[in-house]
């Protein structure tokens, strides 16, 4: 469970990118963070994982204030899938996934069999076992996204934060990732994810937080939160919401 209280963040001076951000993500909840380019989603995620320090506010994971914790200790509680990651060295895929085990390794002894097994299992879940011996730097953007998800799975944390994890994926892999995230929530993991497609918010998330100009303008169940009014506020009048077999679907105005 993660709780953000009154978070304010500025890269410089007091020009706040994020202002008065407060929300909770319960155990086993899949929470979408939704908002236009540049609204502050990645910035929020970097605050949550301790890469950036909020000017004001607190972030609690299972009641522990992570704004006071080291990055190493935060990594035992939260796994992060960044938008993009380019390592300077052509590590093999299996080595990148094994890096997810780093917070669990004891001192100088390095990975044990259990760490290897967890990395292999994570690659199987994501469907990338066949890439294990390939250099990460030679993969396509979508394949790299899957590797980063496997690395996060291997980390075995109670909270996962994913920044646009499906942006480079084909249709089948997008659905696979959403199914994987759903399954994780069934195991009690809290998942926070940013995605640009409002339909994905409607169809897959339990809760949606909508950001506009650095503030939360809506927080609740996707069917209540993703409305034509909210989409108009974010993007102007470019789409409509229809219902098909009682499933809501956002349709662009040009169709
Ligand atoms: N290192 C930085 N220094 C100064 N400003 C930054 C920095 N990183 C991001 N910003 C600014 O902070 C704002 C929020 O950026 P952020 O990357 O968090 O947005 P986002 O919602 O994740 O966008 P996108 O959907 O395009 O990924 C933007 O105006 C961006 O220009």
UniProtKB/TrEMBL annotation:
Gene3D superfamilies: P-loop containing nucleotide triphosphate hydrolases (3.40.50.300). It comes from Methanofervidicoccus abyssi. GO terms for molecular function: ATP binding; ATP hydrolysis activity. InterPro entries: AAA+_ATPase (IPR003593), ABC_transporter-like_ATP-bd (IPR003439), ABC_transporter-like_CS (IPR017871), Metal_Ion_Import_ABC (IPR050153), P-loop_NTPase (IPR027417). Residues 2-238 form the ABC transporter domain. This is Iron complex transport system ATP-binding protein. Keywords: ATP-binding, Hydrolase, Nucleotide-binding, Transport. It is an enzyme of class 3 (hydrolase). Its EC number is 3.6.3.34.
């Amino acid at each position: 469970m993660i709780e953000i209280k009154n978070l304010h963040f500025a890269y410089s001076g007091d020009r706040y990118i994020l202002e008065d951000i407060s929300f909770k993500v319960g155990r086993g909840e899949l929470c979408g963070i939704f908002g236009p380019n540049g609204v502050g989603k990645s910035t929020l995620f970097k605050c949550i994982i301790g890469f950036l320090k909020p000017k004001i506010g607190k972030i609690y994971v299972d009641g522990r204030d992570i704004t006071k914790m080291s990055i190493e200790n935060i990594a035992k509680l939260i796994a992060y899938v960044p938008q993009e990651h380019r390592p300077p060295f052509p590590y093999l895929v299996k080595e990148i996934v094994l890096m997810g085990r780093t917070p669990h390794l004891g001192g100088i002894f390095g990975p044990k069999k259990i760490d290897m097994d967890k990395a292999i299992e994570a690659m199987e879940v994501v469907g990338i076992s066949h890439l294990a011996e390939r250099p990460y730097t030679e993969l396509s953007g979508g394949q790299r996204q899957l590797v980063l998800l496997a690395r996060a799975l291997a980390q075995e944390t109670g909270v996962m934060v994913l920044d646009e994890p499906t942006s480079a994926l084909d249709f089948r892999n997008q659905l696979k990732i959403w199914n994987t995230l759903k399954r994780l929530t069934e195991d009690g993991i809290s998942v926070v994810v940013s995605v640009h497609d409002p339909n994905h918010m409607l169809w897959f998330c339990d809760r949606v937080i909508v950001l506009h100009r650095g503030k939360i303008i809506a927080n609740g169940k996707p069917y209540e939160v993703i409305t034509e009014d909210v989409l108009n506020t974010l993007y102007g009048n470019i789409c409509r919401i229809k219902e098909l077999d009682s499933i809501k679907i956002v349709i662009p105005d040009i169709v």
